[in-house]
Specification:
Blueprint lengths: L1 E2 L2 E3 L3 E4 L2 E4 H4 L1 E8 L4 E8 L4 E15 L10 E7 L20 E6 L4 E15 L1
Parallel strand pairs: 1-10
Antiparallel strand pairs: 2-3, 3-4, 5-6, 6-7, 7-10, 8-9, 9-10
Length: 128
């Protein structure tokens, strides 16, 4: 998967020479899917600063949600990677160990997760 960002220490997203502390400062606020063009958008918000981070996954091939993902907390636990065939979600690969075919994983509290593999993932930042 081609990406314009990196995961650092499982909790930071590094983008344009800035590291965003996703674990302590952001919540998952939106997840939307466009079926016709096979894109999924994930949005995170730091409501104290009116700051938003979005990741759009283009041309997804594999998407998986844990059983209670949509009833879980919006608190981000960590980010990481998993091979498509690896269903053991007790641990995740770090950025340095991830392969180009690995899924990107967002883990929330209580071990709920969203994992995706797509051709490309693009992060953007906005403020209100």
């Amino acid at each position: 998967m081609k990406k314009n960002f990196k995961v650092v220490d499982s909790i930071y997203l590094s983008y344009l020479s800035y590291e965003y502390d996703m674990h302590n400062c952001y919540d998952l606020t939106e997840l939307s899917c466009n079926l016709s063009n096979r894109t999924i958008k994930v949005q995170f918000a730091n409501t104290k600063k009116n700051h938003f981070i979005s990741i759009v996954f283009f041309r997804y091939h594999h998407v998986m949600f844990s059983d209670k993902f949509f009833n879980s907390s919006v608190d981000i636990e960590e980010f990481g990677y998993k091979s498509i065939g690896d269903s053991n979600m007790d641990w995740l690969y770090e950025e340095k160990d991830a392969g180009s075919q690995d899924c990107f994983v967002i883990r929330l509290t209580n071990d709920e997760f969203f994992r995706i593999y797509s051709d490309q993932a693009t992060l953007s930042v906005s403020e209100i």
